[in-house]
Each structure stands twice: as structure tokens, then as C-alpha cells.
Amino acid sequence: MPYKERDINKMYYTMGEVTEIFNVNASQIRFYEKEFDILQPKKNKKGNRLFTPEDIENLKIIFNLVDEKGFTLKGAKDYLKNNKGDVKENQKIIDSLEKLKGFLVNLAQEL
């Protein structure tokens, strides 16, 4: 039986890992945490923020609305409140399309 790699999913991401994922400063992540109620990272005894995969998905949604679609912070908050289910579904579609794009780019480079 061939070996099948497992997807390793982390339970928590540190602030440093999150800033690397989104290529932003920690101050911007902290600012979004204060502004958006859907971001609720855990804090350890030292006060370090620990982000769950759900927090990462919520940050993707926020960055998509603010940076790519051009929403203001107030507009993004209102949009999230009124369309929470649709926004999460749209983000899943965007993520799968980005994975497909990455695969196709790698395939084109190999040819």
C-alpha cells in the first residue's frame, strides 16, 4: 500500500506566523482584531495571541474585502454582519481557485 501524506493542520498560529501568511505588520493584525468582532484569537498567560484556523479564514475574508474589493472598514463590518454565510462560502471558492491557479502555474513551468 503506497504511503499517503497527511495534511498537517495546526491548532494555533502565532502572531509571527500570521504576519508571514498575510505579509503585513503585527500592528495591522492587532488593529483588525479590535475592529472586527469575528476575530477572537486566544491569549496565553504571557498575553501572546494564538490564532485558530477559523481566525485565519476570517482574516482572509477581511483582507479580501478591504484590500482586494476596496471596502472601507465600516463597509466591511456591515457586509460581514449582513452576509456572513455567503462571505464564508465565497472565500472557500476563492481559496480553491487560488490552489488551482498555483497548480496550473507549476504545471506550465514544468512543460
UniProtKB/TrEMBL annotation:
Keywords tagged on the record: DNA-binding
Pfam families: MerR_1
Protein name (database record): MerR family transcriptional regulator
Domain HTH merR-type: 12-82
SMART domains for this protein: HTH_MERR
